[in-house]
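explain this:

___
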Amino acid sequence: MPTSDEGTRPATGGAVLRKQVTDAITEAAFAEVAETGYARTSMDAVARRAGVGKAALYRRWRSKQAMLAELIRGKVADALPPTPDTGALRTDLRELFATFRAQLDNPLITRIGAGLLAEATHDAALDEVLQNGVAAPRRAAARAILRAAIDRGELPPGLDLELGTDLLIAPLAFRMLVLKSPIDDRYLETLTRAIEAALKAASS
């Protein structure tokens, strides 16, 4: 078995080359999706764009769907930082919205986000990735903020958590992915106050 020093030693040789190839494939795959759309993206096209043989892709993934599912999870699903825990609902909301804005403002997400949502309506594998890998962790973070506010007495126990979660997630996603409208700090502050008021109104 390797020692702890061996286990943390930087990869060299073949491992570095494999990582470089994987990075090239990842960049090429997202570029292809952005340019031609999810449905028209093919393993051949990604391999050509990455400058590698098609076998390099099939050594890593059994299909286009498996490849894009893993890459989307890695690029989007695993990019959510810890849930805000500032001790107050308003500042928790402000931090959460700032995180969502930063992620949605990523040029890659801007280019492919709406297209992926559309394709997911008739692609079960993609829908599973978006539902469980992208939406679910963000909804869990929103619900954690709401439950913390309930525990502190800022929101009543009878709050509809599903409705509250929708309020925390939908406005930013719609504005940035569908309308493709920029969101500055002033808008974010106004949105924070509006959502806080809506949560309290929905609880009454």
